[in-house]
Amino acid sequence: AHIYNYSFCPNPHWPSYYATASSIHHYLKDTAVKYDCEQYFKYGHKVTSAVWDEEVGETPKWPKIRGMDRFKGQLVHSALWDETVEVAGKNVAIIGIGSSGVQILPELTFSSDPKSLLAHRRALTNERNAGFRASGGGRFPQSATQEACRKSMESRLQVETSEKGRIIAKRLIPKFSVGCRRVTPSKDFLETLLDDRVECVFLDPQSNQAGGSPGTSIKTFTGRGIMLSHSASEEEEEEREFDVVVCATGYEASYIPSFELVGRDGVRLAERWSGCHRDGGTNPECYLGTTVSGFPNYFMFLGPNSPVANGGLVQAIQAQGMYIYKCVRKMQTQGVRCMEVQRSVMDEYNEHAQAYLRGSMWTEGCQSWYKRVGEGGEDRVIGIYPGSAFHFVEMMRHPRWEDYDFGYGYPGMVGSRNGPSIRQNRFVFMGNGFTRREAMGKSIGGTCVETFEEYWDLMELPGIHS
Q1: Coiled coil where (predicted)?
Q2: What are the backbone dihedrals phi and psi of residue 146, each rounded to the nearest 5 degrees, phi first?
Q3: Which end of the chain is more exposed for a tag (fewer CB within 10 A), N or C?
Q4: What angle do CA 59, 61, 66 make, to 5 degrees?
Q5: What predicted TM-score, i.e. pTM, was given to this entire model?
Q6: Where exactly does CATH 3.50.50.60 map onto the chain?
Q7: Cβ–Cβ < 8 Å for 268, 118
Q8: How does strand 379-381 pair with strand 371-373?
Q9: Which of 205, 202, 184 is nearest to 193 (CA)?
Q10: Residue 396 neighbours by CB distance under 10 Å
């Protein structure tokens, strides 16, 4: 749970080792209240569009199964969870065994020492970030890690004493590298699968595809539940009755905003990033997971190729927030009307990212939203940053202003006989020659002492450019 802390706001009151969605939400809300941030929020509002003027979101991924509208019970999705749903004493089906299903199944089946807290948080963050190196940075063999995970799963599934556990282990323990798909920790998911009240039905992923081999598949929803098909013959169909069906089938990871976003020359981001996994389409690309060429003044969190599986995620979000703040501050204090990452810079960055990720474990033969097939037919990783989370934080620490094009001046900054005009001189922000401190009449008698402490870590790294 402590991995979800912001560095500036530690929380010693997490109710459990693994943080639940509600406890994370409670922490974020408390943080917003503590720092008086809610005054800047707009509740009950919906962004309909954002269009660049030269002069002046996660969507649930529902399974594609026929007859969903015929089901008379309660149908919910993990992304839009209905807190009013009661499952006690009911027959419940969960479709999906990814990160959402892992967290949902166990739930449905069943301050005083700040120094110590800081040490604990540092240890957890170090362990989380070190995991990226332990996995070979995604590029090197990790046989020891795979073996350790396999033994742990077999032990928790009791394969030596449980026939059910052996069957589940055979179908559930993957052959691909640890991290090829999102790794989701859970203290009791595997144990819950062994519960007598839980039945595992493994579907053949090929059986629902044209020309796929016969196997167990979900044929359709019925008014009372789900119709399973165990072969190509209708004689092998079986109806299962359920009161509640939970679709833990993930999210649409296209990165396309839920609102219309229009940049220069009327270009729509949805059109540039159109397409979905494994159908070709335009690859979603951006710069440092934060901004896109052609869309001035547009910044985002966790865009394409962000460190979502490279270490601590919250520290990466915090680093992006500080980066965006520095950009906005530059615009406010230096008369910058617009800033936009150069297209050549964005292209080079993505060229480097794909060169790093090519041949990594994220291109192995697992189904994952981290990747899609590129125009040349090769896997293109769109969901992973080319480095560790700590590496990302360091990259975001100091914006590379040379990577941006800037437009200067605002309407009305310089008047004329014909009304307000835009003056492009980038030094207009120097104003009347006096600082804000002087204008406010504050003391200017002090001397700024430069300690140069921030420069002591400059060093030459031998062979770094070889």
Answers
A1: none
A2: -60, -45
A3: C
A4: 140
A5: 0.71
A6: 287-408
A7: no
A8: antiparallel
A9: 202
A10: 20
